[in-house]
Amino acid sequence: MPSFRVGSIAGIPIKLGLSFLLVLPLFAWFIGNGIGQLLPLLNGIFDANLPAAELSAGNTPYVLGIVAAVGLYVGVVLHELGHSFVAMRYGYEIDSITLWFLGGIAQMAEMPEDWRQELAVAVAGPAVSVVLGLLSFVVFLVVPESLGGVRFVLAYLALLNVGLAAFNLLPGFPMDGGRVLRALLARTRTHAEATQLAAEVGKGFAFLLALVGLFSGSIVFIAIAFFIYMSASGEAQQAVTKAALEGVAISRVMTPADEIDALSPKASVADLIERMLTERHTGYPVLESGELVGMVTLTDAQKVREVERDAFRVEEVMTHELETIPEDADAMTALSTMQSAGVGRLPVVGLQGEFVGLVSRTDLMTALTILRSSGRDSGAETSRDSPRSPEESL
Ligand SMILES: [Zn+2]
After folding, report:
1. Which of 169, 198, 213 is the last residue of a domain?
2. Is 281 known to sit in a ligand binding site?
3. 163 in Cβ contact with 380 (< 8 Å)
4. Total of domains in the chain
5. What angle do CA 116, 113, 394 make, to 5 degrees?
6. What's the gap in Å between 211 CA and the centre of ligand 1?
7. C or N terminus of the chain, fewer CB within 10 Å?
8. In a domain, 98, yes or no
9. Quick one: average pLDDT of 360-366?
10. Gap from CA of 122 to ligand 1 centroid (Å)
11. How far apart, in whole angstroms, are the C-alpha atoms of residue 224 and residue 221?
12. What SMART domains has UniProt attached to this entry (predicted)?
């Protein structure tokens, strides 16, 4: 999703996603249009005595809508900065804070697995939102009643920031509440077990939310329920995968170089496709006098038109810039590297960069299935220093 950098706070780039830019005017319109219902609500909660006639006249609702919407998103950025500052205090790096239509995401290269740290980072965001809500309320109390518009925005932000904190504390991933729950569960369990349990709670909660949505006819509830359910499944899957693959040597799951029929860069694309058909592989390392010079996949071969496949050589279609993995890395690192590079297989290289084998996603998934059925994932030690879920949202 495209995003635009608009500045940085404390060295953290702040970006606006395209979906945010599209939804902000819509949101402002939504507030402006709903001012007829918002005014009695705010007057009821805060005993605000906001002048309905004055604030509903002409373009005033839409001006207030824009100011309130921008104010709310400023609150979201501060919420994310709350998470970010605490994470940075523990030495974690924040890549960026991006605003998109559902709120904000503080992107971190890795996240704390120590339960105290995760708890502190997760709680920091909602804590900031509560403080913002209270601050808005205090300022609302001191602003003179003649400034009806200002008081409307302040009352609105007081309500919404507290609402944002409450929404974020819902007990399901990717909400902060899901992380709080995992941190508390991880006090007496491994990170993977805590994640699985927290994910189960999240799924149960999503199910309840969906029921409420069905009975009340609220499409928003159903959408949020679906979102929580999918995130919980993803998070649990990732934790299980990580617990099983971490610490497993690549050499145990890779296909060693001497068992691989490598291709010569001079082979024709027609030969390549013929080999793919007979050997049922969709990717090959390309070796020239024992040295790895590239990788070629079915997608590369398909770029050449059928009539030209005899004329084209493998070296003309293969990838030269290779993502490789050192043989002393573990299987989880291989999986993360494949995911971030968007490739299905990685050449494994030795200390001098020599080609020692090939590891594919299928190899990793097969290893995962075997390791899981042998029960390795329960009680596996977790360590903090490998990449995990790269995102933490809202
Ligand atoms: Zn948050």
Report:
1. 169
2. no
3. no
4. 3
5. 85
6. 25
7. N
8. yes
9. 84
10. 6
11. 5
12. CBS
pLDDT at 393 over 50: no
Tokens 């790269």 correspond to what residue? 390
Q: Is 378 domain-assigned?
A: no
Q: Are both 198 and 177 inside the same structural domain?
A: yes
Gap from CA of 212 to ligand 1 centroid (Å): 24
CB atoms within 10 A of CB 22: 12
Give the residue numbers annotated as catalytic, written as ranges.
80
Percentages helix, strand, coil for the chain (3-state, rounded to 5) are 60, 15, 25
In a domain, residue 257? The reply is yes
Q: Yes or no: say if 357 and 255 are a contact pair by the CB < 8 Å rule.
A: yes
What is the Å distance from ligand 1's center to 80 Cα?
A: 6
Residues 160 and 214 reside in one and the same domain: no
Mean pLDDT of 237-262: 80
Q: Looking at the domain assignment, is residue 214 inside a domain? A: yes
Whether 105 shows a pLDDT value over 50: the answer reads yes
Rounded distance between C-alpha atoms, residue 64 and residue 155, angstroms: 12
Residues 257, 234, single domain; the answer is: no
User: What residues contact 218, with CB distance under 8 A and at least 6 apart?
Assistant: 212
Confidence of residue 139 (pLDDT cuts 50, 70, 90): very high
Q: Which residue has the higher pLDDT, 330 or 373?
A: 330
N-term to C-term CA, the chain: 17
| Nearest in space to 261 (alpha carbons), one of 287, 291, 298, 228 | 287
Bigger pLDDT: 210 or 100?
210
How many CB atoms are located within 10 Å of the residue 192 CB?
A: 25
Asked if 35 contacts 5 with a C-beta cutoff of 8 angstroms, the reply is: no
pLDDT of residue 101: 67
Q: Which two tokens stand for residue 176?
A: 């902060």
Q: Which domain holds residue 219?
A: 173-245
Q: What is the mean pLDDT of residues 50-60?
A: 78
Q: What is the distance between the alpha carbons of residues 277 and 268, in angstroms, rounded to a whole number?
A: 14
Percent of the chain with pLDDT over 70: 94
| Alpha carbon of 27 to ligand 1 centroid (Å) | 20
The pairing of beta strand 325-326 with beta strand 255-256: unpaired
Q: How far apart are CA 168 and CA 106, in angstroms?
A: 14
